[in-house]
Specification:
oxidoreductase, single chain, four-stranded antiparallel β-sheet, Alpha-Beta Plaits, 4 helices, alpha+beta, 37% helix
């Protein structure tokens, strides 16, 4: 069963293309994390928020990444982090065309 890691936090930017350029190396490094399957990057310049929806193979790998990433964000001065791990209901997700099995 796959697991979702939902993360959001307050951030002053960059957003859009600037964010894509600034965080390209970070995105590449995430691909190498144990149990990582995929991520959707989220951003809201209007409310100065960013984050992502991650999918991991197991609850353990999602939790391990969440702990490491929260510490990494703190190193960037981002301490108001909302991070949660959820199980995926694969039967309902399949009905709504979710790309998770």
């Amino acid at each position: 069963m796959a697991y979702v890691l939902q993360v959001d936090f307050t951030m002053d930017g960059p957003f859009g293309d600037e964010m894509a350029n600034a965080f390209a190396d970070l995105a590449e490094s995430i691909n190498k994390e144990e149990g990582f399957l995929w991520k959707i990057w989220t951003e809201s310049p209007e409310t100065n928020e960013a984050g992502g929806i991650y999918i991991f193979e197991t609850k353990e790998t999602a939790g391990k990444y969440m702990e490491m990433h929260t510490k990494r964000l703190a190193g960037f001065g981002i301490t108001d982090v909302n991070a949660k791990v959820f199980a995926i209901n694969s039967k309902l997700t399949a009905i709504t065309n979710g790309p998770v099995k």
